[in-house]
Amino acid sequence: MASLRLTQKLSQRMVLTPQLRQRIEMLQMTTIELSELIQNELVENPVLEEVMTDEEFQEFSEKILDQNSEGHDEVFEDNHKKDADLSPEFEDYETLKAEIGSENGTSDEPLSDYEGDSEDSNEERSDAFEEVDFGREFQEYLDPGYKTQEIEYKEDAPSFEQFLTRSPSLTDHLEWQLSLQQISDKLEDIAVCVIGNLDADGRLTATDEEICEMCGCSEEAVEKARQVVMRLEPVGCGVRNVKECLLVQLEANGEGESLAADLVANHLEDLQPHRLQHLAKETGIDLHELNEEINKVRVLDPYPGRRYSSDEPIYVQPEVYIEKIDEDYIVYFTDDGSPRLRISQSYKNLVDQEDTSKETKDFIKDKVRSAVDLLRNIEHRRQTIYRVVECIVQRQREFLEYGVQHIKPMMLKDVAEDIGMHLSTISRVVNRKYAHTPQGVIELRRFFSEGMLNEDGEEVSTRILKLRIKKMIEDEDTRKPLTDDKIAKILIKEGVKLSRRTVAKYRDQMHIPGSRERKTVI
Fold it and tell me: From CA 51, how far away is CA 54, in angstroms rounded?
């Protein structure tokens, strides 16, 4: 029987510290996500403060001067002169204020001196106490009988939330139309239940039995409500399958009894370009007439709910800019709107004060360490991205100069070896990052592609081969489309040896159907 023993073991293992984990996570973040992280840190860490840009600081100073000119902040200027030696930041403000004053033709003297020595100057100024609108500022503390005209107007106005806009969903759009229909309340409740069980394509996912159980009605009532929903805009929502959707839309277009409706009802699987001859023989209809009827079906939408899809748009913001100046390409960052951070000097002074408690000092020191780690990680992320993009520019100069037809094969490991970083680090850097280049805004990952040797021993990017295959298919005769074997033979003549299977793989990756599906008879 095994016995319990106490043993010691010496081993080495890598442990990710919070700082290292944050550094890795920040490498994967986009510019928008990084801005959100910085905003959260500004809220949670009191030691961090945002540095105003020169324009923002000048705008703030001009605002203060405007307030002084209106006579609302005269005491501030006097107190400012008394306490100027307390903070170096106020000295900078005084210098900036003097510069602005000199530019505007004013000085540091009180503005009242320029208005003359008249004693009526102070009397003409309005009293700040009298200018306060108590009905607006303190309405919840005052007697309800006293309200200004502005307040009464605002109470009658719509709330702020009603001005917020968003794209209407499929459910909202259908329910709004349903409320305008002249139907019974019971039938409207069943129709709302039908709308609530539609998927993103507009298909009804719940069975009639399930809707009957939810609404406590008969299957005939469910079918009647479903017919109401199917004829709302977009037409075809609430159907069970593609065939029913197309028939409802043809009926709404006045083609319910046409040959197109008959073809959809009885020959839907044969309504493909490569099966037209078979369909013409089976129905005895001329190919040209058959093609005209099929064109009526092609304009229909088998997925009407997708136009009201609630998918959030993906916003793309370039991480770096690549610009050609003279004969060289320059990589630079722009002001992306992210806050500029620094550690507050006030908290540093608070730690040095003797009357500060130990708990307060420990709290401030912990927040300072966290802030320093954040600032270092932001700078590390910036330097890493710059080195990776600089290496990409050196390797893909012809692509930046002439376009995608001149892109060179390049792997992640090539960049990793050039700049001496790990492969996983390069992968994190290029993930979801975009660069503004002379060829447009391009995802960094799109600069990387595999390659293969041609007859001359030169590496050709697989992306160029895919574009060549796509171009040949676009220029082909649709009555005699190129097969994968034929495309492979053409590429071999051009000096690139590809098998038929490789051509088929590239074609599938570009979502291009085979030659049989691309063939047309008209």
Answer: 9
Q: How confident is the model at residue 110 (pLDDT cuts 50, 70, 90)?
A: very low
As a dihedral over the C-alpha atoms of residue 170, residue 173, residue 179, residue 185, rounded to 10 degrees, the angle is 0
Residue 53 neighbours by CB under 8 Å, 6+ apart = 335, 340
**Angstrom distance (rounded) from CA 22 to CA 374:** 8
**What's the token pair of residue 297?**
């079906």
pLDDT at 389 over 70: yes
C-alpha 70/C-alpha 72 separation (Å) is 6
pLDDT average, residue stretch 374-398: 92
Contact 491, 468 (CB under 8 A): yes
Q: Is the dihedral of CA 509, 514, 517, 520 positive or negative?
A: positive
Q: In the prediction, which pLDDT does 165 show?
A: 58
Q: Which residue has the higher pLDDT, 288 or 63?
A: 288
Strand 434-437 to 320-325 pairing: parallel
CB 303 within 8 A of CB 202: yes
List, for residues 458-500, the tens digit of each pLDDT value.
Answer: 667 788 888 888 888 888 887 788 888 889 888 888 888 888 8
CB 204 within 8 A of CB 179: no
Coil/strand/helix, residue 156: helix
Cα of 381 vs its chain's centroid, Å: 21
Q: Is the pTM of the predicted complex or chain greater than 0.85?
A: no
Q: How many C-beta neighbours within 10 Å does residue 221 have?
A: 20
* Tokens describing residue 1: 């029987």
Neighbour-count burial of 30, counting CB atoms closer than 10 A to its CB (0-12 exposed, 13-18 middle, 19+ buried) = middle
Q: What is the mean pLDDT of the chain?
A: 77
Domains of the chain in sequence order? 170-308 (1.10.10.1330), 320-447 (no CATH), 451-518 (1.10.10.60)
